[in-house]
Amino acid sequence: MSTAITFSNVVKKYAKNVVIPALSLEVRNGEFFTLLGPSGCGKTTLLRMVAGFNSIESGEILFDNIVINQIPANKRNIGMVFQNYAIFPHMTVGKNVEYGLRLRKTPKQELKARTDEILARVKIEEYRDSPPERLSGGQQQRVALARAIVINPKVLLMDEPLSNLDAKLRVEMRGTIREIQRSVGITTIYVTHDQEEALAISDRIAIMDKGVIMQVGTPRGIYQRPYNVFVATFIGFSNLFDAVVGQSGAEKTLEFSNGYTVPIKQLKNDVKAGEKVRVSVRPEDFVQAPEGDGIRGTVRTSTFLGRYVNYQLIVEGQEMEFVQDLRADAEFLTDGQEVWFSVAPEKINVFDQTGGHSLIEGVVRFGS
């Protein structure tokens, strides 16, 4: 049965250094919830607080409304998958997976049945009698995953579980992890600094910076409507422009520094004409325009990536990116070529001048 996890004003300190200041958060029953942020942002610290490996200086963590602060780590009924797998090299795959059940003195017949079931579910039953050293990195990660969930834990915690795998295996394993999590229905908290990984597997994502949650939402919601410039530039790539809010009749506009102007319908009502703003444009939201119309750039380099071409541009002295889909009629740009772009106004994001918060209607601060 899945478990809801509640963080209520949780504080973590090391001496006088506050790492996580009064964090509150809800993780839903059966949810695949990802903590995403740069190194040192506090995501692994928070995960270890749930596991019982780190103390909690203030506040509460609850499993289904039961406070777990004082429950020892080995009594919390948590499955954990680590970055380095933590597989016992002297045990076979089967013995590794059985380990938690043996500690719980599970009856022999039930132990075998549950081990057989989980080995089949993670598709490593043929390696039951093999030593871990004979397995690939992806197969070893499957062993670690099987060992974590065979005990029927309330919660599954995963700390950068794919960071030691090569790029192809990471893509394969993230799909495997998501599929297994859905089939088991277990509440999962997943820690990563890999944005693409988080977008691919999560039900919801919390973006963290310096121990503070910047935004929580679905992958699509956060990507399309980031709350601030930090989120916009951390999740994917964003081109940033300075602009001024204008007024054309009843319609608001954005006026870029070169005079290029676009109508903007999704600004909040309290945004006034004359206000200086920061504008975020995703590389895929540029549209090539006729010469003299839009924003002018110069192609610095291009990178062919199979399904699309990524261009590095110089725009008003800044490096920016443009993504061109591969179509039969596509004309590739060349290094040094001058190009003009318009933007898709319904997709761009607008922030206050400091980049601290969104001015788009419906985008609100986490916790407000």
Describe it for me?
With 368 residues, this protein is α+β, with helices and mostly antiparallel strands. It is built from eight helices and 20 strands. It has helices at residues 43-51, 93-103, 108-121, 137-149, 167-184, 195-201, 219-224, 229-234; strands spanning 5-14, 17-27, 32-36, 58-63, 66-67, 78-81, 155-159, 187-192, 204-209, 212-217, 239-248, 251-256, 261-263, 276-281, 286-288, 295-304, 308-315, 318-325, 338-343, 349-352. The protein has a six-stranded mixed sheet with strand order 6-7-8-3-9-10, with helices on both faces. A five-stranded antiparallel sheet has the order 13-12-11-14-20. A five-stranded antiparallel sheet has the order 15-19-16-17-18, with no helix packed on it. The two termini are 31 Å apart. The model has no long low-confidence stretch (mean pLDDT 93).
